[in-house]
Structure formats: C-alpha cells, structure tokens
Write a structure and sequence with these properties.
The protein is an alpha+beta fold. The protein has a single domain (2-128), classed as Roll (Thiol Ester Dehydrase, Chain A). The protein is 20% helix and 38% strand. It has helices spanning 22-41, 123-128, and strands spanning 2-8, 46-51, 54-56, 65-75, 79-88, 94-105. Bound molecules: coenzyme A. Coenzyme A binds next to strand 2 and strand 6. Residues 47-50, 76-79, 102, 104, 106, 110, 112 line the site of coenzyme A.
Length: 129
C-alpha cells in the first residue's frame, strides 16, 4: 500500500458529531482512485464502476492529519482494481478500508475501452523514454 495524499481535517469536513464526515472522506478516496487510475491507464475517461464494502473503522477529528493509501490488486482488460486504506498519519490507526475499487476505462461513447496495461508504471520512467 502506497500512501500518496495527506489531508488536514478542517471544520468544514466535520459531521454534527464533530468528527470527519464520511461523505467527505469518500469524495477524497474517489478522487484519489480516479487520479491514480487515470495516470496508470493514461485515459482521462476513467470512471468509478464499483466499490466493495466500506468499513469505517475509526474516526478523525479537527486538526488530524490523515493519509490515503492505494494498492493495485489487478489490471483487467478495461478495468483497474484497487484496494484503499485511510489512516491517521501520526498514529497509523486505520480510519477506513475498502477491499476493492473498480475503475473502468471508457471510450468517447462511454463504452468500456481496453487499456492494454498490465503492470504499474511510473511517469518518470515514461518521460525518460
Ligand atoms: C462503466 C460502465 C460503462 C461499465 O459498463 P458494463 O456494462 O458493466 O461493462 P462491462 O460488463 O464490459 O464491464 C467493464 C469492466 O468492469 C468490470 N465490472 C463491471 N461490473 C463490475 C462489478 N459489479 N464488479 C466488479 N467488476 C465489474 C468488468 O469485469 C469489466 O472489467 P474487465 O474489462 O477488466 O474484465 C457502466 O456501468 C457505467 O457507465 N457506469 C457508470 C460509471 C460512472 O459514471 N461512474 C461515476 C460515478 S456515477
């Protein structure tokens, strides 16, 4: 699991219980998964198809720093399957885990498009070619 993005919990991110609002966290996770997938697949028309059970295991409060981790589980024909874990940056306590996020590459008509990718690539390696 690679933790790419850090977030700072601000007042506007809280629910009435004064802890991190789950919808906000899902928005951040979805954006992270989309960015990661678009960079890997090299197709900006890559969308979220499926998320497995979302387990909110602990919470976060105002001022906490959290980090969002992703791991590639599988390169499919048109899809990319990711696992996600969000944790407190300082304590590493897990806040949420998602076993499967399926992202699908689409063509201009919105139909699944084979992406031809089979392994993780790094932008710096692409640029060096
Ligand atoms: C993405 C979309 C085009 C896929 O259509 P579809 O008819 O399911 O297409 P397919 O059956 O060819 O599946 C495409 C890929 O998704 C995978 N997939 C589809 N449904 C899945 C599910 N429930 N669980 C896991 N994988 C799934 C398929 O295995 C396939 O992967 P592969 O090509 O790597 O083997 C269509 O469902 C869609 O447009 N959904 C809305 C997406 C969107 O707008 N998301 C943003 C949030 S609203």
């Amino acid at each position: 699991m690679n933790f790419h993005t850090r977030k700072w919990i601000k007042p506007e991110d809280l629910n009435p219980n004064e802890t991190l609002f789950g919808g906000r966290l899902l928005e951040w996770i979805d954006e992270e998964a989309a960015l990661y997938s678009i960079i890997q697949i090299e197709n900006p028309r890559t969308v979220t198809k499926f998320m497995s059970e979302i387990n909110f295991r602990s919470s976060a409060k105002k001022g906490d720093i959290i980090e969002i981790g992703l791991e590639v589980i599988n390169f499919g024909r048109t899809s990319l399957t990711l696992a996600c874990e969000v944790r407190n940056k300082m304590t590493h306590e897990v806040i949420v885990s998602i076993d499967k996020i399926i992202m699908v590459s689409l063509d201009e008509a919105g139909n699944p498009l084979p992406h031809g990718k089979m392994e993780i690539e790094f932008v710096k390696d692409r640029l060096a070619k």
